[in-house]
What we know:
By secondary structure, the protein is of the alpha/beta class. It has one domain (6-261): Alpha-Beta Barrel (TIM Barrel). It has helices spanning 6-15, 27-35, 47-50, 62-75, 93-106, 120-128, 144-147, 157-173, 185-194, 215-218, 240-253, and strands spanning 19-23, 40-43, 80-84, 110-112, 133-138, 177-181, 199-202, 210-213. Strand 6, helix 9 and strand 7 form a beta-alpha-beta unit. Helix 2 packs across helix 4 and helix 6 runs parallel beside helix 8. The radius of gyration is 17 Å and the shape is globular. 3-methyl-2-oxobutanoic acid binds at residues 23, 44-46, 84, 179, 181, 202, 212, 214.
Amino acid sequence: GGQLTIAGLHGMHARGEKIAMLTCYDASFAALLDSCGVDILFVGDSLGNVLQAHATTLPVTIMDMASHTASVARGNRAAFVLADMPFGSYATPLDAYRNAVTLMQAGAQMVKLEGGAWLAATVDFLVTRGIPVCGHIGLTPQAVHQLGGFKVQGRTADAATRLHQDAAALQDAGVGLMVVEAVPATLGAEIAASLAVPTIGIGAGPACSGQVLVLHDMLGISAGRRKKFVKDFMEGSASVAGAVRAYVDAVKRGTFPAQEHCY
Ligand code: KIV
Ligand code: NA
């Protein structure tokens, strides 16, 4: 068949088939990841960290995202292409629409926004106008200065309740997919069970419908301390393609994330 669609992703979720997602920022890696069976090529604004050496994702622009999305789309064949809306690009529904159009024209099949219930009207505005949206709750790195650091979220009962409310509000507004980042594995499992749409976890435990990692993290080439939820798949692999296949295999089998990668 052709390119994976949202219906295809929802079908995988319905069949209990895990979804393997990796970040991807260029055409060469897009071709490699696609050929290794990665389901979703995600043009994350983490490119601000791993490509541009910024300490946060805040400096990333819509033109950066459009350029990398276009490169990924050209290198890809069958994977689903998801692109991040960068910091400051979705403060209002109309801003979000105009910037999402730029990413869709670059080749994205869906855009991702970071935040909770406050984004419901924006999600509805986009979805109504034919732009599929992925939510992103838990640790939302664009809010790092509000959160006071890159910290695990949903640790208290109040915070967990708020995350459940955010997840429900975003689903009601029409998200087709939900990224859940850096929450206790028990909360990740609860959120995954409470939603009809597929959940993609990063530091959210093994119960999510799929997993995502930053490409450079899973290849062991990211600077700085390794985050708890990261596994270096180059260890024990003879090639980059081998590492990517090992990641896809581990996600599909449910052997990644293991206990040691969970909060
Ligand atoms: O930009 C990014 O890499 C992300 C993570 C969820 C993988 O948003
Ligand atoms: Na991101």
